[in-house]
Write a structure and sequence with these properties.
The protein is built from 8 helices and no strands. The protein is mainly alpha-helical and 213 residues long. It folds into 2 domains: 109 residues, no CATH class; 50 residues, no CATH class. Helix 2 packs antiparallel against helix 3 and helix 3 runs antiparallel to helix 4. One of its GO terms (cellular component) is peroxisomal membrane. InterPro entries: Pmp4.
Length: 213
Amino acid sequence: MAGGGDALRGLLRAANTLLQQRRYRAALAVIKGFRNGAVYGAKIRAPHALVMTFLFKSGSLREKLKSIAQATYTHSRNLAYFVFTYKGLMALQSRLQGKKIPFHSFFAACIGGWLVFGENNPINSQIIMYLLSRILFGLSRLAVEKGYVPQPKQDPFPLVAALIWGTVLWLFEYHRETLQPSLQSSMTYLYDDSNVWHDISDFLIYNKRTDSK
């Protein structure tokens, strides 16, 4: 028993010594990036999938749990693969050119995006739309910061909020099929299901009646 403990402690010391080696830092950063991508993807997707599945999906408990697990695994895997690819390409480019330049980041992320998120599926689609909204905000702020767009005299956020809500509800009412399925489900619950009731049970307590009366 003691021998096994000594071996384990020796292995841990060797691992810690390896982690302190500067020459392996880039490769180790790629490996930890993979780890962080997997963990973060699971943390983000699991609660979202849990809520959306039990709110809007039908089926048995087993089917729902399987759907949650599959969505969590896909998000976690894809994010881990992307971080691994991105950091690996960043390290490779920096090593080849002897320094880090802004184009390296764009190029590495383009390759990773193509390879990992290029498949058009619900998980990837949601991630891309999430990023797109933040990119638009970021580019808008950058344009003002660099002087390409004059600094607004008033906060433009109220106008942006009005236009976004106006547009998304117009799309929902008249071109619903253009919206992402989970957004359609959320808006159906909010704006369509609230038009239907039969008595106090499905007016205040439940969204829809489950009996046949």
